[in-house]
Give the backbone structure.
Amino acid sequence: MRRVPVATRAPLAIGGFLAVPLFFASLMAFSLALERPHLEHGVLMGTTSSVEAKIWAASLAPSLIVVAAGAAAMMWRHGLYVSCVVAIGMALAVTSQLDEWAVRHARRFPLGVDQIPRNDPSNHLDRGQWEGTAKETALSLAHWTIALALAAALITLTLELRRRRSRPMRPAPPPPPETAEGEAHASVG
């Protein structure tokens, strides 16, 4: 069994690092997209555990894609950039439909996410309030993912350029040996 050659483990490390804020951005976004109340005795109740499981599984998928891309990119010397680009792409994809998801989520929860009427003193979240906060949080986390990916790529590029500049130049060849004046050269002949 042959081992796959590894140029560097940095792409996997950066992929794992960027997967964390991406996971939380995905969790907020997919909560907006997938969460639905269920009816229990004619009353709207919170989300079922099977829907919660779908939300968590869907949220984990973008992060796993970034980590898998990082693992695959370990074969290339500049694979870190692959991890960064995939993380940026996944952050943009996860947040691409947030406005639509927030509106649909608010329609599914007519009394607000806590399902308590507006005039009840125990109501803490009005209709659309949780959706707005979730949307802002998902966008903020996606922006952090993108900023961290760009920072990692920029730092790597800076270090690479610095390494190339500081590479020692080849030493000049030594001068030919000098002969003293008046020395006779023996000729073979």
Observations:
- The longest strand covers residues 38-40.
- The chain has one domain: 10-118+126-165.
- Helices lie at 10-34, 49-72, 80-94, 98-108, 129-165.
- The CA atoms of residues 131 and 170 lie 63 Å apart.
